[in-house]
Design a protein that fits this description.
alpha+beta
């Protein structure tokens, strides 16, 4: 199984799955701090967070909403520590129960989160690699990648709240004539590719465009393509008229000027 869900043709990672995909590098309690903008280093400040809005939409999830979630996790930790003192609990209890305290139906875009995670936690990865090197071991393959595989039971927890918008990667829509079309998903995929290309091009110059910058760029591209289509659809009689304006009769013969 895979933790990723597809929303409007784009890969999303439920926030409940973030501790899992980062191999606990980001724990539920620290995730609240990062997404609640309480992190001094601002490690996930560039990552947008959204919540599902039935029947088929989503909206930004405010940073302030993480305060209550953080308090709930703290209460869970306190209760589990009390049970631990009596020998009735283990670390596994925390791993099983803490994701349930994170909000259902809340997610980040994979293409936003993954590069930020790689960049902001590079120092952690480097330290782990050095420790293994000191022990005579090479860095493990995939150590810096997201761990997207999960069991069906884990996925049931992660994807709670996504029933209304989650769909397979290849979405087909039936037209009135009964034929299938992937036009909407194809359009979203093209826009996404343009956005990724724009961001990557700027990051090569150590520039990090904002969401507004990306939106403005996509708007300009769309406007240029629209103008191009208009020019290509000019009626044939107009082209004929323009050609006629360039013609003159010289010595009884038609000459194109």
């Amino acid at each position: 199984m895979n933790v990723v869900v597809i929303i409007a043709g784009r890969e999303a990672i439920p926030v409940r799955a973030i501790p899992h995909v980062t191999r606990r590098t980001i724990t539920p309690d620290t995730l609240c701090k990062f997404l609640g903008h309480e992190d001094v280093l601002k490690r996930l400040l560039e990552v947008s967070v959204y919540s599902i809005q039935p029947p088929d939409g989503f909206a930004p999830y405010p940073p302030t909403a993480w305060d209550a979630i953080s308090d709930s996790l703290q209460d869970l930790s306190t209760n589990l520590k009390a049970k631990e003192n009596s020998g009735r609990t283990t670390r596994q209890d925390w791993r099983q129960q803490s994701p349930l305290k994170l909000p259902a139906g809340v997610f980040v875009w994979r293409d936003e989160f993954e590069p930020v995670y790689r960049r902001q936690w590079k120092g952690v990865f480097d330290d782990r690699a050095m420790e293994r090197l000191d022990e005579g071991l090479a860095e493990r393959a995939g150590e810096r990648d997201l761990h997207l595989d999960c069991t069906s039971a884990e996925r049931d927890v992660f994807v709670e709240g996504f029933e209304s918008v989650s769909a397979p990667a290849e979405v087909q829509h039936e037209s009135e004539e009964g034929t299938s079309s992937t036009a909407t998903v194809d359009w979203i995929a093209r826009v996404r590719a343009l956005a990724i290309e724009y961001i990557a091009r700027h990051k090569e110059q150590d520039l990090y465009p904002t969401q507004d910058d990306v939106c403005k760029h996509l708007t300009e591209v769309a406007r240029e393509k629209k103008n191009l289509r208009r020019s290509q659809k000019a009626p044939s009689f107009r082209l004929h008229q323009e050609k006629c304006h360039t013609e003159r009769l010289v010595d009884g013969e038609r000459t194109v000027i």
